[in-house]
Specification:
By secondary structure, this protein is of the alpha/beta class. The chain has two domains: about 260 residues, 3-Layer(aba) Sandwich (Aldehyde Dehydrogenase, Chain A, domain 1); about 190 residues, 3-Layer(aba) Sandwich (Aldehyde Dehydrogenase, Chain A, domain 2), CATH 3.40.309. About 40% of the residues lie in helices and about 20% in strands. It contains 16 helices and 23 strands. A seven-stranded mixed beta sheet has the order 14-17-18-13-12-20-21, sandwiched between helices. The chain has a five-stranded parallel beta sheet with strand order 9-8-7-10-11, sandwiched between helices. Helix 4 runs antiparallel to helix 7. The radius of gyration is 25 Å and the shape is globular. The mean pLDDT is about 95.
């Protein structure tokens, strides 16, 4: 038995490697990419620590080179979902009773393994299966995932240390129990770190997890499971399944021991799952925790006092990094009439300078969108714009899927602040600009706030402080992450906890204690050190 209070290592953000020409990290990443491309993988489900293969395989291909076969994963059915739940519940008691410092040690080891021997394999897998360039893979698959592991351990200790007051004669205590049942994690393709965190955060707090990743992220999900195993995570704590969404949901959401949903994905899917949970609410042992980060229609608004080049850089970086496949990517922009032409000119210059192609060529800034379905959807938006009278494409607009799913960075200019591409989530490299009268800033803020049901991220550019103050107040419910003179993307664990409200989710901020407290059920203890021996109170005389 441990007879001490333990303090974990102080969390620090992992430094980002530069991958400059001739750098060791560039050579190591290129070697890792070549190694992964040299063979096909056979990706099983992992249930109770065992590899499960069904023979019903689905091939995996790089979005930027869809003729290349990376291997295949084994699709499961309802029986495998049930097996994963059974395995999780079988592991639950021992894991829940594992001292917190031992759970912490596992995920601290995950961080150090990822910072070292797993770094380039994780980056390479992300580069290949999600078409992220070296910088994007490094920030996501390495640094942010490391940060999640390190900082969540720190936040876990903060949660556990929060205790009530105890007056003389009493000792009041709080313990933080894992949820009674299993957590279902549904993860997206676009951030490897999010996938790891959606599983790891509940597990760190003593819960067991059934994990269903996006089909287009399974290749890198395999490396995450390798990392967990290498760090000593016990079998059955996190179980990964590859099953059709409705099939998995039909089993999970009808199970008596379903205790929580940790979700990142589309708003429509999240709302559907919430309804399913509601329809089955009487069947559960306890009220499930529902935590979700969903879509966005993220904005940039510039005040007439803004610096044009700063705004243009914010637009370009915010809209086109990772092909706009971020729920935080800037997708609608409001420019004042006095600066619009200058800003748009700089945007055009930057876009013209960008190279597009495979992320294996480190000189390419723009890579492929994730799959054909996404490609067709984005191309459909571009074609729609070309047919309208109140909007036009002023930059880009081309697309080609003959080799990979490539779409040019596209800038739309509209005279209608409620134009379709100002309102609907596109999830691709398309940004729409609306030019407003420079003297109608506050009126435009009201239009902005009323345009979208989403409230994830947004940014204001201005030099005048009163303008910043006005935007901050009027847009207080329009974004869960609000940026001042910066692009509305790139939240850092421990610095800008991430999440949004309205149609963008439940705003249980990942990268802070606010997410971790959702995965525990507090129990209060009151211990009377000197119990009363007479029922009579003083007022009775």
């Amino acid at each position: 038995m441990a007879n001490a209070f333990f303090t974990p290592p102080v969390a620090e953000n992992e430094p980002i490697m530069g991958y400059a020409p001739g750098s060791p990290e560039k050579e190591e990443l290129q070697a890792a990419v070549a190694e992964l491309k040299s063979h096909k993988i056979d990706a099983p489900m992992i249930i109770g620590g065992k590899e499960v293969r069904t023979g019903n395989t689905v091939s995996m291909h790089p979005p930027h080179e869809h003729a290349h076969n990376l291997g295949a994963f084994h699709m499961g059915d309802a029986s495998h979902v049930q097996d994963a739940i059974d395995a999780a519940l079988a592991a639950k008691d021992e894991w829940a009773n594992t001292p917190w410092q031992d759970r912490a040690a596992i995920f601290l080891k995950c961080a150090e393994l990822l910072a070292g021997p797993f770094r380039q394999k994780m980056n390479a897998a992300t580069l290949l299966c999600q078409s992220k360039n070296a910088n994007q893979a490094e920030i996501d698959a390495a640094c942010e995932m490391i940060d999640f592991f390190r900082f969540n351990v720190q936040y876990m200790t903060d949660v556990y240390s929060e205790q009530p007051e105890s007056p003389l004669g009493l000792w009041n205590r709080l313990e933080y129990r894992p949820l009674e049942g299993f957590v279902f994690a549904i993860t997206p393709f676009n951030f490897t770190s999010i996938c790891a965190n959606l599983c790891a955060a509940p597990a760190m707090m003593g819960n067991v997890v059934v994990w269903k990743p996006s089909d287009t992220q399974i290749y890198s999900a395999q490396v995450i499971m390798e990392l967990f195993k290498a760090a000593g995570l016990p079998d059955g704590v996190i179980n990964i399944i590859y099953a059709d969404g409705p099939t998995a949901g039909d089993v999970v959401f009808k199970h008596r021991d379903f205790a929580g949903l940790h979700f990142t994905g589309s708003t429509a899917v999240f709302q559907h799952l919430w309804k399913e949970i509601g329809n089955n609410i009487g069947n559960y042992r306890s009220y499930p925790r529902i935590v979700g980060e969903t879509g966005g229609k993220d904005f940039i608004i510039a005040h007439k006092s803004a610096v044009a080049k700063q705004v243009s850089t914010g637009i370009v970086r915010g809209s086109f990094e990772f092909q706009g496949q971020k729920c935080s990517a800037s997708s609608r922009v409001y420019l004042p009439s006095n600066l619009a032409d200058e800003i748009i000119g700089y945007v055009k210059e930057d876009v013209a300078d960008m190279k597009m192609g495979t992320p294996e060529d480190f000189s390419n800034y723009i890579n492929a969108v994730i799959d054909e379905r996404s490609f067709d959807k984005i191309a459909g938006f571009i074609d729609y714009v070309k047919e309208q009278d109140d909007a036009k494409i002023i930059c880009g607009g081309g697309y080609d899927k003959s080799v990979g799913y490539f779409i040019e960075p596209t800038v739309v200019l509209t005279t209608n602040p409620k134009f379709r591409t100002m309102c609907e989530e596109i999830f691709g490299p398309v940004v729409t600009i609306y030019v407003y009268d420079e003297d109608k800033f506050e009126e435009t803020l009201e239009i902005l706030d009323d345009t979208s049901d989403y409230a994830l991220t947004g940014a204001v550019f201005a030099r005048e402080r009163y303008a910043i103050m006005t935007a901050t107040e009027k847009l207080k419910n329009a974004a869960g992450n609000f940026y001042i003179n910066d692009r509305p993307t790139g939240a850092v664990v421990g610095q800008q906890p991430f999440g949004g409200a309205r149609g963008s989710g439940t705003n249980d901020k990942a990268g802070s204690y606010l997410n971790l407290v959702r995965w525990v059920s507090p129990r209060t203890f009151k211990e009377n050190l000197v119990p009363a021996e007479d029922y009579r109170y003083p007022f009775l005389g």
